[in-house]
## 1
Amino acid sequence: MNPLAQRPFGAAPVDVVLDVDTGVDDALALLFAVRHPGLRVRAVTCVAGNAGLEQVVRNTLTVLEHTGRTDIPVAAGADRPLIAAPRHAGHVHGGDGLADLELPPPTHTADDRHAVELLRDVLGSAPNPVTVIALAPLTNLALLLRTYPGVAGRIERIMVMGGSASAGNASPVAEFNTWHDPEAAAIVFGAGVPVTMYGLDVFYQVGVDQVTCGKLAAHEDPGVCLAGRLLCHQIRVGTGEPRVPAGSGLLGDAGAVCAVADPGGLVTEHLPVQVELAPGISRGQTVVDRRALPGEQEIHGTPVAVPRVDVAWQVDARRYRDLFLTTLLDGTA
Ligand code: BDR
Ligand code: CA
């Protein structure tokens, strides 16, 4: 059962902040979020991940300019994980993190505040608890929750694109965002805030077919055109990944935003999840416990408190694809 699905039809827009490492699919997520009438984007915070922090900030400002939303505050946060060195993903997202499309540099600038300070201010001043959509390594959010633990009560839920209950991508068992900063993921999962884990189990399923991607790329609206060009890049990068539907441009992070806008398309289960912190091949793995009964590990071992997370198991891929396209195209010629 997905607890988010209880939101009444016709309710007021949901206040959200996005934490991103823009990133091709973070860009798709931003383009969708700012255009969805059910979401009110109050801030965007940036963290090192897919690219270095400075590049992530620049990419985020560029994307928002393409969709005319320069009013949304953007802040730079952590330039590295809590403990480990940063390791970027240029082979997936291009050398500039945004598919090397040679986009013009942004003309507006980031907020002066650090991401943690911007998040604290926005969460503290919003009329209602805010949904945090975390599409990147969780460094900024871990720093926020440790620096200002009181803000936890101002967070409705954290929708985390991260983790996997099955195979990984950064390593055989770890997804990139939790692999990049496992300690941060462990802090966020254990912070006592409701968390949905939109992991690789659903992440790879939502895509847009090649013909539609091409049509979007030829669109005269700058935001739609950018989305199309990024999706065409996704088709090139996704070729050979068996979890991506053949010939599809992956929505990736944008699927997690769809899950906030339309929670009914996601099936989740409330389960214990531990983030593996030990060095070695399984570091960053999210170990999801689907057992009904305790086993020998619990019977003979020292009891540990394991946080419970709403793990996404199934996604209505067609529903989110359609939602993405209609939202993006709504109001354009
Ligand atoms: C995640 O890592 C990045 O490559 C994407 O932006 C997404 O957030 C997928 O593992
Ligand atoms: Ca991302």
## 2
Amino acid sequence: MNLIQLFRKLWPFVKPYKWLVLVTLVLTLIGSSIAQVNALVLDRTVDAINELISNPGFEWSHAANILIVITAVLLSKEALSVVISYAQNFYGERMRVHVSKDLAQLAVERILKYRMAFFSRSGNEAGRLQTRIDQGVSSLSTTVQNTFIDLLPLFTSALLALILMFAANVFVGLTALFIVPIYIWITVRQGKRLKGWRQQMRQYREQKSHGIVGIIESINVIKSFNREGIEADKQWAIQSNLTDNLLNTRKLMLYYDGWKRFVQQIGTVLIIILTAYLVLIDYPGMTIGKIMYHVMLFANVTAPITQLQRIFDTLNDALIYAEGYFSVIEAEEEVEASGNYRPERIKGRFVIEHVDFSYPNGTKALHDINMQIEPDRVTAFVGLSGAGKSTIVNLLDKFYVPQSGRILLDGVDIKEYDTQFLRDNIGLVLQKNHIFDGTIEENIRYGRPDASDEEVREAARKAFVLDQVEKLPNGFKSLATQLSGGQQQRIAIARMFLKNPPIIFLDEPTASLDAVATEQIKASIDAIKKNRTVIIISHSISQIIDSDFVYALQDGRVEQCGDPDGLYHKGGVYKDIVDASARSLNIDKLASTLNS
Ligand code: ADP
């Protein structure tokens, strides 16, 4: 990305605040003009005092007059300058904060629109995405402030000082003009040499925060295996790279800063020598006061250019971080596809035809899947872990799109369906139930935000969690995250009951429930399966044999299908799994215990 592209992309974010920019520009012009007052006052003062002391008829009243005028001018100038710089800084901050808010909000809104594949792509892990967005937002908003609020005043002030130098004397003006490009050339070179290091820095920062998020997420595993040392070593490697990078960056910066200071000093010396020479040869208009005048003006020319480095750095950072940020918000191809088909009613008959699917990382999860999933009955997906059961549910929910084949719902390709409408009609209960940071009531109501309190209670009752919730000191207002795993699972089931959709996908819904709760939930599910399509993924033998139809999967392929009894008697994968489950339950011993 180059600067023009960057500003083209940034303009839409600045546009809403163009009045702020305009006001600041006017203030800038006033501010830059009064910045030259010190030099002018000093010039006049030196000459006036010089004249006064070389005059034989010296009078203190004259000197006092001069001092009163200087004091009045300098103090009023300073007062005005304080007000202007306050307003300028305030508006600058205001703009940065607003632009940063807009950039951050846009990133959130965009991410919410992306399909699941975006999140499972490598490089898009939570920590990395967060760093990319945070750094993009902070560096882009600083760039906006630097460019529109800081850069222009600096340049106006430098330009005005340069014009005054030319007006005072062409040779002096030319000397200043000769130094400036050298100064800018060094700054640009510095920026270019730093660019590679900065780019690498961005990657290290992403790695660092990704690493820290990873540690916090798996802290219990790390602790239980005593792997604190290994994790610390991994972070140490990243920190070392980051430190080397930082030190190299600083080294380069200091090297070039030294050169710049030296060039600036050469400029000042040249201007002193030149002006002194012009005074000595009695050049018209050249007085002793001009030496100070020119040196101060030259400082006004170079001071802003010293700041240019800071702005150049932020621009360079912005170019680097902008790529990361805009790659997140402009991933047009990642926006979830949606059709606009919205039937009156969904019956819930899925037909899957020759579906192949690979995840974005290349894992081929499904091969030539063919299925017919009928409403009004419970279909079970059975298979070992990794067989592809959850993946099929992901495809039916349009979380991912198959690479080949098609999926029909009530005879229409699910691609044609309005995605939000489709998901409104599907209830999904996952193995890992996502409980949000909020109360139990809020978590259940997520299933249908406009549900009444009574409906929320009813959903909790159906999920057999009402009694337990009511026993809590704050009842439905208790924090859901403080519930046990099994209770949270029932909250997620209550959420699904409240939604009351015609299609229900249950991915190991009773995995973290105790036996009593499992039995209760099973009863609830039996009660709601009427007139609905229910798909259940389960390792629980009782749930499997209770289903109406079974698909047995192995390595991403459908190996067998049929009713549970018939399938068992045929032998094969299904029988193997059921037998293994029965053995794991120690059924023989259980039966003898129950009979004794
Ligand atoms: P099951 O539900 O039968 O246990 P899954 O459908 O979860 O199996 O997984 C099928 C295969 O797809 C596995 O090899 C798994 O590693 C892989 N897989 C699942 N989710 C993802 C993902 N988000 N990205 C990449 N591979 C995945």
